[in-house]
Design brief:
Layout (H helix, E strand, L loop, with lengths): L2 E6 L2 H13 L3 E6 L6 H11 L3 E5 L3 H4 L3 H10 L7 E6 L4 H7 L3 E4 L4 H12 L2
Parallel strand pairs: 1-2, 1-3, 3-4, 4-5
């Protein structure tokens, strides 16, 4: 069963994605939801969980003191995590910036559940 990690500072988004992805048969790990974590704690949690795919908000300052681009850069530099798929999301169109930063995909919020599933299946299969 593939593991998806959701990193978002919005508690409601985190809860919705957790429920939806669990119902779709994925293991879900989550970080954020209003809990203040330092960037190093977030990075350690990713190392510990070893997700197959990460869905990460671009704006994580409330969660980690980092933005999503900083965290993505760190992930891409680490050999053990560089192959982890990363889907970035935001209410602002950062698609080109995310692509240049090394993200595998970008989703504009709000997104439809089917759109999310299509993106996940693109990388993890059916």
């Amino acid at each position: 069963m593939p593991k998806v990690m959701v990193i978002d500072d919005d508690k409601n988004m985190l809860s919705l994605l957790d429920t939806f992805l669990t119902l779709e048969g994925y293991q879900v790990a989550k970080i954020g939801g209003g809990v203040s974590l330092k960037g190093e704690e977030v990075h350690r949690a990713i190392q510990h969980e070893r997700p197959d795919l990460i869905i990460m908000d671009v704006h994580l300052n409330k969660v980690s003191g980092l933005d999503g681009f900083d965290l993505l850069h760190r992930l891409r530099e680490e050999p053990d995590l560089s192959g982890t798929y990363v889907l970035m999301s935001s209410g602002i169109d950062f698609s080109q910036k995310c692509k240049r930063a090394g993200a595998d995909g970008f989703m504009m919020k709000p997104f439809m559940p089917e759109e999310l599933l299509n993106q996940i299946r693109k990388y993890l299969g059916p």
